[in-house]
Design brief:
Length: 248
């Protein structure tokens, strides 16, 4: 539900937009900053590298980079399948492996945020029109990280959404990460634990099994929503401003 509402056509993109592609196959989104003329700067994880979470995510999430085989490299971007860094690519390469193009939403209302079941599509934090967050400054940050790097890729603590959020807002959560998508994965794990407890109680009380089961579902969904909310960059208290060390 949350993904579809943000869908956008290429011709409606503006420089500095935070965009993402969504992969139905992997149930995972890949984020970047639109620069101009189809050029996107985004943070990737190298092909064949393990995600290393030690969870089911290792089997679900595909490589977040252009999926061109070595014998059919992109004529514009060449082969970047081994890249484990911030890269600049054409729109086709950015969308490779994804099904559609979407624009990330900023400053959404709390009710809208909670209504969106998909993490990594929006945030409560407002995108100010001040100079610090102008499209030019957003692109400046993206180019800076393209030159300097954005650290080691980590699907939970430092992924493509973390990169795009940092470029867009000029802030970052260190070392926990600020990705809404990662928060939704963690929230789902907490919700699953809550549901397991409720189902265990239901089995121990046959007369109240139905009531306990329904209550458990409600409680698990509530746990999911609360966990997503308290971990959003617009709510967290540990958000730090990013200072770029410019060259003289």
């Amino acid at each position: 539900m949350g993904v579809v509402s943000n869908k956008i056509d290429r011709e409606n993109l503006k420089p500095g937009d935070h965009i993402y592609s969504w992969s139905v196959a992997y149930a995972y989104s890949h984020h970047g900053i639109y620069v101009d003329e189809g050029n996107v700067i985004h943070f990737t994880r190298g092909e064949g590298q393990e995600i290393g979470t030690g969870t089911g995510l290792d089997h679900v999430i595909g490589s977040s980079l252009p999926q061109h085989p070595l014998d059919n490299a992109c004529p514009i971007c060449s082969d970047q399948s081994k890249s484990d860094r911030v890269i600049s690519s054409c729109m086709d390469c950015f969308l490779s492996g994804g099904d559609h193009l979407y624009r990330y939403e900023y400053g959404v209302e709390r009710t809208v945020f909670l209504a969106k079941a998909d993490g990594g599509t929006c945030t409560l934090v407002s995108f100010s029109s001040k100079l610090a967050n102008s499209p030019e400054q957003v692109i400046h940050r993206a180019i800076y990280f393209l030159r300097k790097g954005f650290g080691d890729y980590d699907v939970i603590k430092n992924n493509s959404e973390d990169f795009a959020l940092c470029c867009k807002t000029g802030s970052q959560v260190i070392p926990a990460g600020q990705s809404g998508q990662a928060a939704s994965f963690q929230a789902a794990a907490c919700a699953g634990a809550a549901l397991s407890v409720s189902l265990a109680l239901a089995r121990s009380s046959p007369l109240g099994a139905v009531i306990t089961g329904v209550a458990g579902l409600a409680a698990s969904y509530g746990t999911y929503c609360v966990h997503r909310y308290i971990n959003d960059i617009g709510v967290r208290a540990d958000v730090e401003e990013v200072v770029l060390e410019e060259e003289n």
